[in-house]
Amino acid sequence: MVNWAWLYDCYGDVDRVPELLVRLEREDDAEAWDELSHRLILESDMVFPASFAALPRLVCLASRSAPARELAGAIVRRAAGGHGCDDLLAGCAEALVEFRELLDLHMRSRPDDYLAVFRDLLAVERHYHWSAVLGDFSDDFYQVACPHCAAEVTIAIGGYGRYSAIRDWNLGDVDRRDLRPVSPETLCGSGRWMHETAVRDGEAALADGFTYLFGHAECPRCASVFNIADEYASSHRPPM
């Protein structure tokens, strides 16, 4: 049983969120969903004790309510530390297992919001750094530091090109070097799972993009070659 007496929302209230949840468990109400989302997530992406206390009930609603699924996903995407609610998040473990299965099932239906659902699933899997930045590889850029000379390298993966470069704000991306995609058969770990999921669901562009994201780049400054995903993750993966 959740004790809401200390579980404040973004307005500091401790009673309004449970009232809204009861209301939404009885009937779908757009006005109530709008208020609940504003109380659980601040515009600055902050979450609150009430956000995690509400998460299991949102997951229960998510199988029949798109707003519940989207709000639960938004909370999970912001769960990467700094909120002071680690104990409450740990108490959501069973709900997160259920949420993972629900998201995976929804992705298999190839929904219009596939990428958004994939990003929610990445957060559930605690790949917060990928959840925060993953695009559809039509216009994606990643900034990484070369592990050998520390030069800031721009990685582009999109329809306009797949390259590493040094970004000049006057000249654009200069000294471009073609990326070196990895063979899908040699992918491992999270890269293999992400690629296989995209292939399973018929997301060819996403699957192809993963072969570049988890491939290699040449530094335009020192010509050393490095793994893109490893360098990006080492700089952006939140402390767990």
Largest sheet: 4 strands, antiparallel
Terminal-residue CA separation: 27 Å
Mean pLDDT: 95
Instruction: Please tally the β strands and state the result.
Output: 6
Number of helices: 11
Structural class: alpha+beta
**Helix-strand pattern:** HHHHHHHHEEEEHHEEH
Tell me the strand order in the biggest sheet: 1-2-3-4
> Which residues sit in consecutive blocks of at least 5 with pLDDT less than 50?
none
The total domain count is 2
Helix content, binned percent? 40-55%
Strand content: 5-15%
Note the overall shape. elongated
Radius of gyration using CA atoms only: 20 Å
Structure overview:
This protein is α+β, with helices and mostly antiparallel strands and 240 residues long. It has 2 domains: 4-119; 139-236, no CATH class. Helix content is 49%, strand content 15%. The protein has 11 helices and 6 strands. The protein has helices spanning 16-26, 30-40, 49-62, 66-77, 86-90, 93-108, 114-124, 128-133, 189-200, 204-213, 228-236, and strands at residues 139-145, 152-158, 161-168, 172-178, 216-218, 225-227. It has a 4-stranded antiparallel beta sheet with strand order 1-2-3-4, covered by helices on one side. Strands 5-6 form a two-stranded antiparallel ribbon. β3 and β4 (172-178) form a beta hairpin. α1 (16-26) packs antiparallel against α2 (30-40) and α1 packs parallel to α3.
